[in-house]
Amino acid sequence: MQKDIATPIRTKEILNKYGFSFKKSLGQNFLIDPNILRNITEVAGLTKHSGAIEIGPGIGALTEHLARTSKKVLAFEIDGRLLPILEDTLSPYTNVEILHQDVLKANLKTVIAEKFAGIEDLMVVANLPYYVTTPIIMKLLEEQLPLRGIVAMLQKEVADRIAAKPGTKEYGSLSIAIQYYTIPETAMIVPKTVFMPQPNVDSAVIRLIKRPQPAVQVINEEFFFDIIRKSFAQRRKTILNNLSNGFGKDQKEFILDALHKTDIDPKRRGETLTIEEFGKLSDSLWTLFN
Ligand code: SAM
After folding, report:
1. Average pLDDT for 213-240
2. Is 269 helix (H, G, I), strand (E, B) or coil?
3. How many angstroms separate the Cα of 58 from the Cα of each of 30, 72, 98, 255?
4. Does ligand 1 come within 6 angstroms of the Cβ of 58?
5. Which of 209, 166, 160, 212 is nearest to 186 (CA)?
6. Percent of the chain, pLDDT > 70?
7. Cα 274 vs. chain centroid, distance in angstroms?
8. Is 78's C-beta closer than 6 angstroms to any atom of ligand 1?
9. Which residues contact 150 (CB under 8 A, 6 or more apart)?
10. What's the ipTM?
């Protein structure tokens, strides 16, 4: 087996060879611990029949572990300076393809259909650039891609919000948006010391397994998410006040009626409502408004 890219010594050698300097603006914190990489691939549960999509391969630290454990790897890298480096570091692996592209601008449905035809098990596995963690995850979920799930390294604080339960201070619109599509689980907490350069915050690896159906069936999805955003607009306010502010004071009677019909105390705060309660409230208000 090849020597790992992700040892501190080899990483430094590669960076020096190419005179590479990190761009903070692109969230470039590379992993330099092969054990963490082994754990990440294990959490993803890949087999020789799986496909893996990576976002931001950097110098290939995680990519090579994905190449060893899956059938095919496709990686999106925005920084053109990394392409010749990846060509060099990943030359032993014939099952890797790098696309020089901003993943947020990619047409993922088309790319997946083209590159992963015949592959049934597809996972996104990535050490995400922290400046765009949430937009990337939301894009992967909202575009209804044929994924089994996502395993991502991200800021611990974001992982806590994603996996938060109602009634906790971390619970909010991000928790609901992600739990609507997936079942999240924090797989491990990762110290700053396994990155080069070290980020300012602790990280975590989270696994999001997609649900066969969203967690709740609602009449209008857009309206459901609008209700959630409005409910969390001011966390210290009650659900009644937040929704009345959001929809306009003249709608207060409708909102009270919907809360009553769905057995939700108007004095509760948004952060105490379960996803099922938001679903019922959304349908009740939608019916009253339309
Ligand atoms: N996977 C490598 C590792 O674990 O060592 C690097 C991870 S580093 C946290 C994030 C990587 O994402 C960098 O290589 C960065 O250039 C790339 N990146 C940043 N924004 C991106 C975007 N919008 N689309 C694709 N890649 C991006």
Report:
1. 96
2. strand
3. 7, 18, 11, 49
4. yes
5. 160
6. 99
7. 21
8. yes
9. 123, 124, 125, 126, 137, 140, 141, 182, 207, 208
10. 0.99
